[in-house]
Design goal:
Elements lengths: L1 H14 L32 E6 L3 H18 L2 E6 L3 H10 L6 E4 L2 H9 L8 H10 L3 H7 L1 E3 L5 E3 L1 E8 L2 E4 L1 H7 L7 H13 L17 H14 L2 H8 L8 H14 L33 E3 L19 E4 L11 E11 L4 H9 L3 H10 L17 H11 L3 E4 L1 H4 L2 H16 L4 H15 L1
Parallel strand pairs: 1-2, 1-3, 10-11
Antiparallel strand pairs: 3-10, 4-5, 6-10, 7-8, 7-9
């Protein structure tokens, strides 16, 4: 799924060439060491707390480093096991009665499915209140971790720990400076800038949908971002569950908003006809040619992994928030992904770890190492490993609404199937209503 790809590549992209930070010694530096006070009276000596998730390699090491301070003050033995087949293994283990205490879900859909089967332990209303009060766009994060239990009753099940950001536009500061362009603050400004670049005889956008067997997925992110900027979050939520039909006028309008960029020959490097055939990994490279083939590229936080070698984010390339409309009362929505922690084998130790993962310190330790973004409003943003991650963190903190990648929440036949191919057809000139109606027909056929 896209979200797993994003989180893995984003960590590599944002930490490329950066030496690992030295593990902070307890009590030193601007970390929230007072977060540990509540755990010092908790004696978990002799207890083993197991955690399973998708993180391997550097991600595994950094997560274990964050947990090490909890282990030091409580005496607990926290054992993390990472797997590249986590999503299959956790179901096998849970159904077989051998689930870890805590599972790290890269997508809410799997957590929701396990909750429905009675394989997740609900958290408390106090936990939900804490997230609501301490995460930017807190209600969004509560909603993303609230699922129906085996009796159909909604319960709060988890805390998001490490998220990814997708509502970004990348550009070359040198190109903007040379041309006298300014970073737009609103969607109206962004469209005006695009028109100005065309009037200056240049091309504003590089867009590519090519991705082998997954060709089309970059367009789904565009549509999701556009829907959040043209309709309420409730419309988005109804869309991803198909409570609202895919060919509803609001969805068609969002697709056409994407088309106002991607199907405009003057807007896109190579013309609209090149969008579907250009590989998404190659598409941003036009920003770095001389003269530039394009000035902007909308893509998630991982895309620097595919910039030309030695490109320095913050110098050779930078980004800004994909803006919302000033003329619509929808605030600042952010599209992204993330991992949610849930209890799959309840114990006092598991609850204690979940409490620790809510502390600023647990977030700050990984922030300082790199490859970690958080909406936790109590975490010290000065501890981010570099300016780029700090800036992304500030975008998350400024969000009024956060929504998870919609295609990842849809059934695979839709979100990783006809939505992708439908967007390729649309980029190629097919009518938006016809595309959306075809997708809805497929959804109807699998219900």
């Amino acid at each position: 799924m896209k979200t797993v790809f994003y989180s893995t590549v984003a960590a590599v992209a944002l930490t490329a060439g950066m030496a690992a930070a030295e593990a902070p010694k307890m009590g030193e530096g601007a970390f929230a060491w007072d977060s540990l006070e509540a755990f010092k009276s908790l004696d978990l000596s002799g207890q083993t707390i197991s955690i399973a998730g998708p993180w391997l390699g550097v991600e595994k090491e950094r997560f274990e480093l964050s947990l090490s301070y909890f282990e030091e003050v409580t005496g607990a033995d926290v054992q993390y096991a990472g797997s590249d087949s986590f999503e299959q293994q956790i179901l096998i283990d849970a159904e077989g009665g051998s689930a870890p205490n805590i599972a790290i879900f890269p997508q809410p859909g799997l957590a929701a499915d396990m909750a429905k089967r009675g394989l997740l332990a609900p958290m408390t209303e106090a936990d939900a209140d804490w997230v609501r009060d301490n995460y930017a766009a807190g209600q969004s994060w509560v909603d993303l971790a609230t699922y129906a239990d085996e009796n159909g009753e909604d319960q709060f099940y988890g805390v998001f720990f490490r998220v990814d950001l997708k509502s970004l536009v990348w550009y070359s500061p040198d190109n903007f400076e040379d041309a006298g362009y300014e970073v737009p603050e609103t969607m109206e400004d962004l469209k005006a800038l695009s028109d100005q670049i065309v009037a200056d005889g240049e091309t504003p956008w590089c867009i590519g949908l090519g991705s082998g067997g997954a060709t089309g997925w970059p367009a789904t992110d565009w549509v999701e971002d556009m829907l959040l900027r043209t309709s309420s979050p409730a419309v988005y939520d109804q869309w991803v569950t198909n409570e609202l039909a895919f060919n509803d006028p609001a969805i068609i309008a969002a697709i056409e908003e994407f088309g106002s960029f991607a199907r405009n020959d003057a807007y896109v490097d190579g013309g609209a006809g090149a969008v579907a055939s250009t590989d998404f990994r190659d598409s941003p490279k036009g920003m770095f040619t001389s003269p530039p083939q394009c000035y902007m590229h909308r893509q998630a936080s991982f895309i620097p992994a595919f910039f030309p070698e030695d490109t320095v984010v913050g110098e050779d390339a930078d980004f800004f928030y994909f803006p919302s409309y000033a003329g619509k009362d929808l605030g600042k929505p952010v599209l992204g992904g993330g991992t949610v922690m849930g209890i799959t084998n309840d114990s006092d130790g598991a609850r204690a770890v979940m409490d620790y993962l809510k502390t600023p310190l647990a977030h700050e330790v990984w922030m300082a190492e790199g490859g970690f973004l958080t909406p936790h409003s109590g975490a010290n943003i000065d501890l981010y490993a570099d300016d780029a991650q700090r800036k992304m963190g500030q975008i998350l903190l400024g969000a009024d609404t956060f929504r998870f990648d919609g295609s990842d929440l849809m059934p695979g036949a839709i979100g990783a199937g006809v939505f992708w191919t439908g967007m390729v057809d649309y980029a190629g000139g097919k009518d938006a209503t016809a595309v959306a109606t075809d997708i809805q027909s497929t959804w109807d056929s699998i219900k």
